[in-house]
Amino acid sequence: MKPYYRDAILHDVCELAPNLALADTREVAIFGQNPEQALTIGYISSVYCKSIIDSYSNVVAMYGVVRVDEIVGRIWMLGSTKLQKVSRPFLRENKVEIDRINKIFPHLCNVIDSRNDVHIRWVKWCGFKIIGETMINGYKFYEFSRIRCH
Length: 150
Fold this sequence. Notes:
Aminopeptidase
């Protein structure tokens, strides 16, 4: 069975939180949250929230979009190190999923820790552009954005 995406459920937070990757744990800590808090807030606040499940039925990542307004959505994703084990199918499906979300919200944006090269390459691969820098609690973050023009 290959990995798949499904609507997130609250229990996914409980499964993923203790397995969150170090880079993601470090990033949410900058915002004053632990993994369980960050995932719960993301899950509750998102109008669109999915989980990525590996072939062993493990939750390896959660992502979603928080509505800013009718056009703008703040996209987010947090994952475990097991996400790397399903990277090829994840990357294939990911572009389709980002396009789907971008039809709902023509402008997708958020910030990303400037120290996280893997995440920066991923957002660029998904078609996002780095549009600026901002300091958050003493750490440099990049602002990223993707605008659907059609």
